[in-house]
């Protein structure tokens, strides 16, 4: 059963440059002891025959097959455009209008 002393909490607080009162040292020592005990219990449960996982339920990505399909030709795309200039789509200017 892990146990953390009041002096160890004070040492950790100094390393972290935290201002901790005497009352807080006692409180934190108890809380950290509970946390360390819980972690130790988890370590006892985890056996070598259980593989480590990141999720309780196994997940797999679902991908569709990448199928190449023919698209529009350049001319077919330009034929549907509202404005064409020099064999390209013509769009309203949005940058540099103030200059």
Automatic annotation (TrEMBL):
Keywords for this protein: ATP-binding, Ligase, Nucleotide-binding, Protein biosynthesis
Listed InterPro entries: Asp/Glu-ADT_sf_sub_c, GatC
EC id: 6.3.5.-
Signal peptide limits: none
Catalytic activity: L-aspartyl-tRNA(Asn) + L-glutamine + ATP + H2O = L-asparaginyl-tRNA(Asn) + L-glutamate + ADP + phosphate + 2 H(+); L-glutamyl-tRNA(Gln) + L-glutamine + ATP + H2O = L-glutaminyl-tRNA(Gln) + L-glutamate + ADP + phosphate + H(+)
GO terms for biological process, alphabetical: glutaminyl-tRNAGln biosynthesis via transamidation; regulation of translational fidelity; translation
Gene Ontology MF terms in the entry: ATP binding; glutaminyl-tRNA synthase (glutamine-hydrolyzing) activity
Superkingdom of source: Bacteria
Alphabetical list of Pfam families matching this protein: GatC (PF02686)
The protein's enzyme class: ligase
Subunit and partners: Heterotrimer of A, B and C subunits.
HAMAP family in UniProt: GatC
Family: Belongs to the GatC family.
Free-text function comment from the UniProt entry: Allows the formation of correctly charged Asn-tRNA(Asn) or Gln-tRNA(Gln) through the transamidation of misacylated Asp-tRNA(Asn) or Glu-tRNA(Gln) in organisms which lack either or both of asparaginyl-tRNA or glutaminyl-tRNA synthetases. The reaction takes place in the presence of glutamine and ATP through an activated phospho-Asp-tRNA(Asn) or phospho-Glu-tRNA(Gln).
Protein name stated in the entry: Aspartyl/glutamyl-tRNA(Asn/Gln) amidotransferase subunit C
Organism this protein belongs to: Actinoalloteichus hymeniacidonis
């Amino acid at each position: 059963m892990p146990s953390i002393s009041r002096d160890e909490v004070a040492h950790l607080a100094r390393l972290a440059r935290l201002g901790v009162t005497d009352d807080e040292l006692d409180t934190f020592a108890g809380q950290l002891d509970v946390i360390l005990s819980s972690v130790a219990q988890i370590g006892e449960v985890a056996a070598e025959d259980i593989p480590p996982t990141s999720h309780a339920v196994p997940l797999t990505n679902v991908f569709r097959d990448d199928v190449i399909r023919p698209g529009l030709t350049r001319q077919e795309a330009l034929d549907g455009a509202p404005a064409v200039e020099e064999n390209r789509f013509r769009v309203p200017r949005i940058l540099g209008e103030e200059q």
